[in-house]
Fold this protein.
Amino acid sequence: MKSDIEIAHEAKLEDIREIAKKAGISEGYLELYGNYKAKVNLSIFDELEGKQDGKLILVTAINPTPAGEGKTTTSIGLSMALNRLGKKSIVTLREPSLGPVFGIKGGAAGGGYSQVLPMEDINLHFTGDFHAVNSAHNLLSAMIDNHIHQGNELGIDARRIAWRRAIDMNDRALRSIVVGLGGVSNGFPREDGFDITPASEIMAILGLSLNYRDLKERLGNIIAAYTRKREPITAKDLKANGAMAALLRDALKPNLVQTIENTPAFVHIGPFGNIAHGTNSILATKLSLKLAEITVTEAGFGADLGAEKFLNIVSRIGGFSPDVTVIVASIRALKFHGGVPKDQLAEENVEALERGFGNLEKHIENIAKFGIPSVVAINRFPTDTYAEIKKLSELLEKKGVRFALSEVWAKGSEGGVELAEKVLDALENEKPNYRPIYEIDMPLKEKIERIAKEIYGADGVEYTSKALKALERYEKMGFRNAYICMAKTQYSLSDNPKLLGRPTGFKINVREVRLAAGSRFVIPITGDIMTMPGLPKVPAAVNVDLTDDGEILGVF
């Protein structure tokens, strides 16, 4: 069996200018990064103003497992299959973070015969967007400490600096650090720490900004620190937002690449779904909606995280909503949710499949609460048996939901035709009635509890005193109408990663609450979730190599 990178190397790439023609983008709007990557200048929106949007398909999944669900692979394969059926489709995806690429998850460019290319570029430095986010983030960090060192005219309380540093790498040693050591010339010693770049508020701002003015305003609203009287000090107060915006100028432009079957794809920005909002940029999705009949977009992790945030946050800000949601599941993953150990997932176990079905069932019910019809994509694996496929089909038929077997990893667009046909049937025969599950002017606690009860199935929410004080303070500061961006484990509907399937009788534990004023998020930190991951015992990085002739190996 060929590896993803071997398949990618065998693919025949087309010049990105030809891909742009297929998408309907004039060459004058392209900013080339070699032959196979380009940014699209934002002036294209002036030409497209007034053009009717196409349909929007949101791809999400059950709670992820070590068995793999194949959400990105399915998104790419579905878009290619729609093109195969004569529809003009573009897929819009997030950029991978170097942390997972060199950690445990690996890359995020799809797999098999359902990839976006060039996969090594996309998985590594790509067009430099992550580096721009890092630079803008750490510029603000440097300006905070420099302001204090140079006399502290704004009266920043060094004990109440709210802005940590960022790096795009899994590095547990940087979670909690001390800076400013070495004497007076190096500033004031204080506690600090790093978050991984996808958790940076600047990544969220980049993905939510509608234009350069919006970008600069949002950056200016970032709360960097507080005074001794708890008055907020913003990036604008520090006169940092202009330089930060300049660093992000090119990063705001969507990236155009291609699928393995030479159809257009936008891959742009990369917030995680478990600690941020988990979707590609609003600008990339808006551009695709203007250019394509059908846009396929993906939201991070399970529907309790990325899809919830897409539907409660991103759709509101972007002014769009999905027409159909595709929920990706695999028989292997459902058996894992049903209690089967990872090393036994290849063995037939219909009973465990039936037990694990509750996880998929809950996500189907959750999407219905937003008024969006669903199609289930069963990502087929060679170990799936006839009896298991039959049982899952029976359970889905009983639930009254459309479903299709998907074999896009092995067969590319040909393996996604059945899924594409079910999606087209839903587009033709279902009328979405999109509605968020909370009103934006509800109290913060009420919005958090609405998500916990309606989406997670929790009995309620328990808060530390620190979290309650923060919520009260943020409401007094005028952020009652902020969006809720939950930070929660991706592995369970609860905040306990060991509670698989469809757990009941639990409460969500909020230990602290952060404010991201630029993106207008209130971020409840639940359970043991961390904003700086660590590397596993055997990181994926040990398998990555470079040959003498410059060929990259081991990226998956």
